[in-house]
Amino acid sequence: MAAATASVHVETSLIPLMGYVKDLATQSNKLGTIPSDYDYSTIRPEDYDTDQHVVAQEQVIPTIDFSLLASNSPKQRSRVIQDLANACRDWGFFMVINHGVPEKLREDMLNAFQNFFDLTEEEKLECAGKHVLDPIRCGTSFNANVEKVFFWRDFLKVLVHPQFHSPSEPPNFSHFGRDTPTNFAYYNSEISLEYCKRTRQVVRELLKAISESLGLEECYIDKVLELESGLQILTGNLYPPCPQPELAMGMPPHSDHGLLTLLIENEIGGLQLKHNGKWINVQALPNSFLVNTGDHLEILSNGKYKSVLHRAVVNSKATRISLAMAHGPCFDKIVTPAPELVDCDKNPPAYLGMRYKEYLELQQSNPLNGKSCLDRVRL
Ligand SMILES: O=C(O)CCC(=O)C(=O)O
Ligand SMILES: [Fe+2]
Predict the structure, then answer these.
(1) H or E element at residue 322
(2) Which CATH architecture best describes the domain 24-375?
(3) If you measure from the C-alpha of residue 31 to the centroid of ligand 2, how many angstroms do you get, rounded to a whole number?
(4) 271, 290, 369, best to mutate for ligand 1 pocket (most atoms within 8 Å of CB)
(5) Any idea where the Fe2OG dioxygenase domain is (predicted)?
(6) What is the ipTM of this complex?
(7) pTM
(8) I want to staple 186 with a disulfide (CB 3.0 to 4.6 A). Which of 24, 115, 259, 327 is the partner?
(9) Relative to the CA of 153, which ligand 1 atom is closest?
(10) Rounded to whole angstroms, how far apart are CA atoms 152 and 145?
């Protein structure tokens, strides 16, 4: 008991010393420079490519019309499944339109996170710097305790399924409520719960279609990975304006741990993905979800669908906020390639099985570095 208390004390004490990028940005923008420990270009030239902002020509990113998945016409549904197969195989990324999640709900979520990031450092302290798998955790960079270079990013991570958490609960968090005439909380848990439910529905439908696209039965992924109690983690990312955006990085190249991540952003772009060896700027269609395929889809599909490498670059003009909703298997599930997709002669298993919880802990407690976590289970 004493040891647990001590370790929490040590970790939380690191956060106020380092501070949030949001506060640092005000000072840096006055000076016109960033501190050297945010200069990503000197430390990771291989990722920096010396041409962070030289990206491939705009390309047409695959778009999936979600409403057609519910189509009565089998022909139309099978066309969307084929589109999903192509997107997962060739890109590991697609945009989803006509998904039915109301625009107002998305805006309310972005506002809730904006309100959270607007809190003072002291007010944020209750959510700060705990263990990587704690249900509510905010901080800066990715894992500031283990990084040599920091990223131009603050975050709030909330576990929202199978247990729903919200930073405005339990009641002792209520002092975060702004002192406005109505004294409403900065983060409305009902709105968050609704958003989580709606995005989970979208993902489970997409995964049914993706199952079919792999030649598996429709509910295969849902059943085998026990998505009824699957993990859902909501991460809000804040990227304040940066006076030297060509030197800093919001989030370094990485793949996501789960199956599919649904991302929305305020109107400011910054997400890039690696496609055919080049970085591509993602320009979101209005009201669309940006969908990344994660490491566990790569494992389950035995490498047929590779998780996409992506990163977030920053800019000097405007604050960017993104909300990434990660969806994964059940925490205790040991995920291996689907036996139906393995053939001992022609297509042997390419990944070892690992409990999803352990995988997540491994990814979150190490520096975020490309697909280094997946490499640990690659055969
Ligand atoms: O902000 C973005 O566009 C990317 C965020 C991201 O990759 C993540 O939260 O895993
Ligand atoms: Fe990501």
Answers:
(1) strand 320-330
(2) Sandwich (2.60)
(3) 30
(4) 271
(5) 229-329
(6) 0.99
(7) 0.90
(8) 115
(9) 1
(10) 15
